[in-house]
Amino acid sequence: MSNSSDPNDNAPTKPAVDDAVAVSSKKQHFKHQPCSTSSSSKSSLVARCRAVVVANLERYPAEVFAMICESDWEELLRIKHQKSEPQKGTGGLDGTGRRTPALSEKFMRDVESMQSHLAESTVADTLIWKDCVEFRFKRGGLTRPSAMLLPWPLLVKQVADQADVLSLWRKKEDEADAKGEELEVSEQEAKCITDATLALQVSPMNLSLLKDSGVGKILKKLIKVSNNRQYKSVFKRIKMPAVMSLGASSQPGEGKEISVLKQLDRLLQSWMDLAASKGVEGMSNSGKKKAKGQAAEQFQKDDDI
């Protein structure tokens, strides 16, 4: 009996070779094919995480939101607003039957005061803060501040639009001056100027509105230029009823008329006083006089003039 073995005894059989080729082909196939479920799984996981966060949003301390960017914060607000929307209903805070804001005023204040990068969100203004205002200050109620008669962006635009009307006529006077001519205006055009002036006169005003609308800078430039015209400025020639008091409750004086320029000068002075008074709130009496002078002086400065 021979101990020699046939070399073909250890050779792989044909079925085994076929299986090896098949496995190799599969490896090559999956090597070049991305996982089709990875993207959907990731989206699903993000959605689940957001759902958990939104469900417990007001339980988190304000400090933890430092890690969230503005876009992620706004997405959480959208989801919270949508989840808390009544299924059926009308009226309420936003016309859908909502009776309370999606998030409380206290929670929003805490987050925005601690996380300044989240405080400028227009989504928060539209979906949350607008309802907070409607909830706390009923529309048409006596407690609603005049600055909240319109949503903030609309109020800023309204003031800026009226200032732009006056600025347009100031520029037209610039062109007439350059030609050595006096600007003539029709009765309708004069009414346009007085209407814009009165709209600014009765508009609510605070430091934020002054800053965001840029109206203070526009009026300062207009008054300065109008007082140095070659000819008498149109803002000096046009008369309007004098407003005896400033603010939303302003009433025209009885029969007394002053120039538009004088009225604008009075209005600007009232805003300067406002800036000065806000700059000294909470200070001791000894420092108030000096602070008022500094605040008024700062308000007067304008590099663009």
Give structural notes.
With 305 residues, the protein is mainly α. It contains 12 helices and 2 strands; from the N terminus they run ααααααααααββαα. The chain folds into 2 domains: 52-144, no CATH class; 152-282 and 291-300, no CATH class. Strands 1-2 form a two-stranded antiparallel sheet. A hairpin with an 8-residue loop joins strand 1 (239-243) and strand 2. It is elongated, with a radius of gyration of 34 Å. Residues 244-253 and 280-305 have low confidence and may be disordered.
Give the helix/strand layout.
Layout: H1 14-31, H2 38-55, H3 70-83, H4 105-114, H5 122-136, H6 152-178, H7 187-202, H8 207-213, H9 215-226, H10 234-237, E1 239-243, E2 252-259, H11 260-279, H12 285-300
Antiparallel strand pairs: 1-2
Helix pairs in contact: 2-3, 3-5, 6-7, 6-9, 7-11, 9-11, 11-12
Q: Compute the average pLDDT.
A: 77
| Individual helix count | 12
Rg from Cα: 34 Å
Give me the strand/helix succession: HHHHHHHHHHEEHH
Q: What brief labels describe this structure?
A:
305 residues, 12 helices, 58% helix
Summarize the structure.
This protein is 58% helix and 4% strand. By secondary structure, the protein is mostly helical. It has a two-stranded antiparallel sheet.
